[in-house]
Amino acid sequence: MSEITVGELLARCLQAEGIEMMFGIIDGSHIPFTAQAPRYGIRHINCHHEEGAVHLAEGYTRISRKPSVVIGSPGPGGANMLAGVSSAYAEGHPIIAIACTRRRLTTDPDRGGAWQATDLVEMARPITKYSALVRQPERLPEMLRAAFRAALTGRPGPAFIAIPDEFLGMKIDANKAPVYPSSNYRMINMGSGDPAWIKQAAEILTNAKRPFLHAGKGVLWADAVAEFVALGNHLAAGMSTSMGARGAVPEDHPHYFFLFDMQASALARNEADVVLVVGSRLGEYDGWGMPPAWGDPSRQKTIQIDADPASIGLNRPVDLGIVADAKAALTSLLAEVKAQTPPRAEMPNLSRYRELTQQTMMEGMQYIMAQPTHGLNPGQMVFGARTFFPSDAISVLDGGNTTLWGVAYNQITEPNSFLYSVKMGFLGTGLPFAIGAKLANPERQVYCITGDGAAGFNLMEMETALRENIPLVVIVAVDDGWGMERSAYTFQGYPPEQQHGVDLSNQLRYDLIAQGMGCYGEKVDDVDQLAPALERAVASGKPALLHVTVDQAINADPPGYKQFRYIRTL
What is the mean pLDDT, run by run of 10 residues, along the chain of 570 residues? Predict the structure, then answer.
């Protein structure tokens, strides 16, 4: 018999899945596992809050395009973790959340009155693709396989495993708990789909007079950016992306139309005779794929390629649905299209749409040109940051109105360079996303633009970044309040004296908080101070935070606010 502790067995299982990093707050129940994890090449990033730990994992998995693992303790630790898991579920991030539970003698079933006895498995069930309690330690590898299979099959998402705390230190016969590599038990690549469907899709596209291509985050997950853009270029098609897929098409591409550029993008989509949607469910930010943001599906042909069968035709009826890996399918489709037609010349309609884009850009200039009476115009802050950092820097947005300024003036031209809580609007994700992104790709610069309200949620993770030697720059737009709620009050006709619950203390100094943790911190009160402050922040080699005072009145009237409200009414 070859004995092994269940804690070491867990480490062995995660190594077989290629896990190199895990996140979470250490608990005494974890020790038989965490003590062994380094032997199996697994680095533990100890965080300040379990929810924040999940967001770190989300940032890591988005940039690495690999699953990641979060650990939590019984009761409140696991419950805190599940708040973050709800984000991963909404955003489609393959996070494996593992929590200990109290010993089976007191909780299986719960006898009542037990300490930290919370039914985490049932709490997790609605926000995961798989949720289960390990009742027999020998079955741990099998249940982890089920968790990884669920998380990585179809649309990615989180899975949850609960392990009774007495299990991890228990010794079992390793021969009764075999561990397999992922290729032995789950599909690694779906392939390109039925060749007949690919050929049919190519025929529809080559016969189209005004094709339009739309990329969702599935294009990024599949590393299919080059194939998607090449197909669009060959067809001289208009292109757009979902908010979460920004960068899948360079936003300076002449055929690209931005989500909130509603005049041009809606007209381009309405006038298209064929629409190809890849890796997107066409959710709320996409106008559900229906009029007025898109053309009537009864008069437009729609082709949809997705790894998830449940996403085909989910919000818009399709003429042809192909369940396939986006990269493989687009590779085959591009080859078939090239065989059927030479590269297309640009069609006149594209220049007409670009004129509308120019009109929208000119209208947007009024926002960034507004002169502040106090601090910076937030648009100038965002534009200054975008100008300072290289195009391949990873950009993270967090907050309410701050994200609208960020969307308007923070152009994304590289894939896997943009992180934002698109589906949940989850405040406090910015800093953890940024830390996880930097861990996934240490060679790239990472900057986070966040509102002051959002920054307060997980600000202690700056210490995590310092301790783990993770340099990045956090730019906090400080308007001493909840800016989007101020805007909502004003939009609904309430004067300032009736805008309750929107103010934060004007004594807060986020730069001094950062300094108190040993990080770099600096206060910026004028636009001319921004670039030198960014230079010093990067040169510090530390996690850095800039407290940027922004004009409260200007911040309350951001570009895209009306479009943001409108698109959620469709």
Answer: 90 97 93 95 98 98 97 94 98 97 73 75 97 95 98 96 93 92 87 94 97 98 98 97 96 91 89 97 93 94 97 97 97 98 90 87 85 95 98 97 95 97 95 99 98 97 98 98 93 93 95 98 98 99 99 92 75
- Neighbour order of strands in the sheet with 238-241: 238-241, 211-215, 274-278, 301-306, 320-323
Dig out the tokens for 221 from the structure: 């997950």
Assign a CATH topology to domain 3-184: Rossmann fold (3.40.50)
On the CB side of 556, how many CA atoms lie within 13 Å of its CA? 19
Do residues 215 and 278 make contact, with C-beta atoms less than 8 angstroms apart? yes
* DSSP assignments along 353-381, one per residue: HHHHHHHHHHHHHHHHHPPPSSSB-HHHH
CA 367 – CA 380 distance, rounded (Å): 9
Altogether, the residues listed in the chain come to a count of: 570
CATH topology of domain 370-567: Rossmann fold (3.40.50)
Q: Which of 202, 204, 216 is nearest to 319 (CA)?
A: 204
β-pairing verdict for 43-46 and 394-398: unpaired
Q: Encoding tokens for residue 190?
A: 């779906």
Rounded CA separation 330/307 (Å) = 12
CA dihedral sign of residues 326, 329, 331, 333: negative
Show Cβ contacts of residue 379 under 8 Å, excluding neighbours closer than 6 positions. 367, 368, 370, 405, 408, 409, 554, 559
Residue found under tokens 């996880």 = 436
Q: What is residue 287's DSSP assignment?
A: G
Tell the CATH topology of 195-352.
Answer: Rossmann fold (3.40.50)
pTM: 0.95
Q: How many CB atoms lie within 10 A of CB 169?
A: 13
CA-to-CA distance for 545 and 252, rounded, in angstroms? Answer: 29
- Residue intervals of the chain classified under CATH 3.40.50.1220 are 195-352
Q: Is 444 exposed, middle or buried (0-12, 13-18, 19+ CB in 10 A)?
A: middle
Residues of the chain with CATH 3.40.50.970: 3-184, 370-567
